[in-house]
Design brief:
The structure is a single chain. It is built from 22 helices and ten strands. It has 571 residues and is of the alpha/beta class. The chain has three domains: 208 residues, Periplasmic binding protein-like II (D-Maltodextrin-Binding Protein, domain 2, 3-Layer(aba) Sandwich); 96 residues, 3-Layer(aba) Sandwich (D-Maltodextrin-Binding Protein, domain 2); 227 residues, no CATH class. The strands form two sheets. The chain has a five-stranded mixed sheet with strand order 2-1-3-10-4.
Length: 571
């Protein structure tokens, strides 16, 4: 290990002590516009350049320093650079119909912008901001502060937003009670100017759903039509990933790269800044460059409210470059991040949740009726109801593992409460009308309720397995297990052979539906900016399962006798 670090150190400082290096004329030049002056915020860029990771990708990268009176997005749109490093707010507000830009990778995954307040100015928590002055910059932090105040139920008219001076000096001099600040810059400057940690509270807007995406990699949208340019982008992101990876290995040593380009280098400040930056950049190289679509949607919603009929960029992001990089790394995902995002979004829809509740409670009813037929007491009825209603989902979540812990019915009390209500209502009804559940009308309603409940649970099983990033072949398997596992557990408890093992066609409908969903979502990968193909796939899959179950019921389909079919009736 020591040898590894020694070699890395030797290679890292070699460019500083060596003479000039002959440039390869075959390298493709890329001009990169940084959003700010040279600092540790961009250490990964400098390391990738010094360690020649860009050259290995066939690129000659020129890093152009930014500043307070410069817009990286404008430099990109006017054709002076090939790539701009910028926050989403600048990209969104700077995009026009004639000059659209697209995020092809995200460097900072966390939200680096915070609101810093002084306790000595009377701010002990968010509510204490009322009646105070907040210093903001000219950029998009005004909308961030306004939305943050809204989330804390603080009236905007109860605070005063004023333009602050650089470096957090207004907070230091107590001209304001709070300021917006970058964690890796102004926040550190405030402390370095003598303000004690104990006198500061830091409020992160992202903690209340108000993120600020910084340091994204943006290009002119029209350039993405070029296969050669896309290839260069993949190489650029791969080299940059290596630069930040090596920076994380030896951050102190990496500061020498910052020193070589900075005109105002202060070692202690830059070191603290770099340490903060490394907390905002994914430590897992596999996640480097990935734009978080949830954070993107939350921030974009803020700008949509403020658009007032202005141009709304349609395709301001793409995972195309990141997906290509993953494929070249030998990492295969059947579903793209965008597809999985839309799938998970469906699971949060009220309509879908109602369908799942309906399925669980319908299966719980089957368990109660089975218990009543066997003359079980109230406790026995509760046990069979729970096994039937949530048994399949429990087995599914045990297979998926830690991502599904604690169990869904522990986090959502509606499941156990609903099952108990089903047990009580059914028991009371049967107590007054002992033959109610034996009537033809009830049996018919129960049969079709089971069909729709089965379809909802099977689809939920497929969605959950996809969201948990399970291998694709587990999708149909867990779809079937979700809707059939509870019944099998119930049969084990009552010492009865599962009828679905004796010729009844049951779980097979869920398996076919799961395979259909997998195929549809693979096709949906080609439409990353639209959720419609994903919605059509999921709800078509659910409809297909209903159709198959109805066909089985209508024609009494069973396995042939040579495959284990028999003429016993199902339960």
């Amino acid at each position: 290990m020591l040898k590894k670090y020694f070699l890395f150190a030797l290679l890292a400082i070699l460019p500083f002590i060596s003479s000039g290096h002959a440039q390869n004329d075959t390298l493709t030049e890329l001009k990169i516009q940084l959003p700010w002056t040279h600092s540790s915020q961009f250490t990964g860029f400098y390391i990738a350049q010094i360690r020649k990771h860009f050259e290995k990708e066939g690129l000659k990268v020129k890093l152009i320093e930014g500043g307070p009176n410069m817009s990286a997005i404008t430099e990109l749109q006017e054709g002076r650079v090939d790539i701009a490093i910028s926050g989403l707010v600048s990209a969104w507000k700077g995009s026009t119909e004639d000059h659209q830009v697209t995020n092809v990778a995200q460097i900072i995954s966390g939200s680096g912008l915070v609101v810093v307040c002084r306790i000595s100015s009377g701010v002990y928590g968010p509510k204490d901001i009322i009646g105070k002055k907040i210093g903001i910059f000219d950029g998009g932090d005004r909308s961030i502060v306004e939305d943050m105040l809204h989330e804390f139920s603080i009236p905007l008219k109860s605070v005063e937003l004023i333009k602050q001076k650089p470096g957090g000096i207004d907070l230091v001099n107590k001209n304001v009670a709070c300021v917006t600040a970058m964690l890796f810059d102004q926040y550190l400057q405030i402390i370095e100017k003598g303000v004690s940690y104990s006198d500061l509270i830091v409020i992160n807007p992202s903690s209340v759903g108000v993120p600020a995406l910084l340091d994204g990699v943006y290009v002119n949208t029209s350039q993405l039509q070029s296969p050669e340019f896309r290839k260069n982008l993949v190489g650029f992101i791969r080299a940059l990933r290596e630069g930040w990876k090596e920076t994380r290995i030896a951050p102190t040593l990496s500061l020498e790269a910052v020193r070589s380009v900075s005109n105002n280098f202060e070692r202690e400040h830059e070191l603290r800044s770099l340490e903060t930056m490394l907390t905002l950049i994914p430590s897992d190289p596999k996640q480097f460059g990935l734009l978080d679509l949830k954070a993107y949607e939350e921030e974009s919603a803020r700008y949509l409210k403020q658009s007032n009929g202005s141009f709304i960029p349609p395709n301001i992001w793409t995972h195309q470059i990141w997906n290509t990089l993953e494929n070249e790394d030998g990492v295969f995902h059947p579903f793209t991040i965008a597809t999985k995002f839309y799938v998970e979004h469906i699971s949060h829809l009220i309509l879908f949740k109602i369908l799942v509740y309906f399925g669980v409670f319908t299966y719980a009813l089957s368990g109660v009726l089975e218990a009543i037929q066997r003359n079980y007491d109230l406790w026995g009825r509760v046990i069979l109801a729970f096994l039937s209603g949530i048994g399949g989902g429990t087995i599914r979540d045990l297979i998926i593992g830690v991502d599904r812990m604690p169990f869904y019915y522990v986090k959502d009390y509606h499941y156990p409460l609903g099952i108990i209500i089903v047990v009580i209502l059914t028991s009371v009804t049967v107590g007054f009308y002992p033959n109610a559940y034996k009537s033809e009308v009830f049996k018919k309603v129960k049969k079709y309720s089971d069909v729709f409940g089965f379809s909802a649970l099977a689809t939920a099983g497929a969605i959950i397995s996809i969201s948990a990033d399970m291998p694709w072949f587990w999708v149909p398997a867990l779809a079937a297990l979700t809707c059939a596992g509870g019944g099998m557990l119930r049969d084990i408890v009552i010492n009865q052979e599962p009828m679905t093992f004796k010729g009844v066609i049951y779980e097979e409908a869920a398996v076919i539906g799961g395979i259909f969903i997998v195929a549809g979502l693979i096709l949906s990968n080609n439409y990353e900016h639209s959720s419609i193909p994903v919605y059509l796939t999921i709800f078509s899959g659910m409809a297909l399962i209903v159709f198959l179950r109805l066909i089985v019921y209508h024609f009494g389909l069973r396995y042939p006798s040579f495959l284990g079919g028999s003429h016993e009736s199902s339960h």
